[in-house]
């Protein structure tokens, strides 16, 4: 839902109403994530706060919120999660494959130095996707294939 308002300079602005599917801090629409993923990735100090089933991950790289619950308002920030989330600002290391701890830099290096062009070639060179447990290790709770492909694309642009 949105409404049109006028800002102090006389321009029309659109005010977006907060909804449960949007991040409570930045209002970016989140992507559904399994409670299992959240339970495995929040730090032990915050594990007892994981309650409810409806979790989302904030996809805004500049926002400090990683996970939020649409039912009870619980949210977990970057520093409350065990791993750096690759698309969040200042993620270090920036993993392409969480299960095998392969970084985006390693994927790009495999492309630039070894000529890898496919996910299969990256897997052979770096060991990515050898120990799959994505639901528990990847912050999105899904296979890292897409993240690896994005890193390959970055590497191909550098050639």
Automatic annotation (TrEMBL):
InterPro entries: BFD-like_2Fe2S-bd_dom, BFD-like_2Fe2S-bd_dom_sf, Znf_CopZ
One Pfam family named in its UniProt record: Fer2_BFD
Domain BFD-like [2Fe-2S]-binding: 97-144
Domain CopZ zinc binding: start-end pairs: 21-82
NCBIfam families per record: CopZ_Nterm_CU
Name of the protein: Bacterioferritin-associated ferredoxin
Provenance organism: Anaerosolibacter carboniphilus
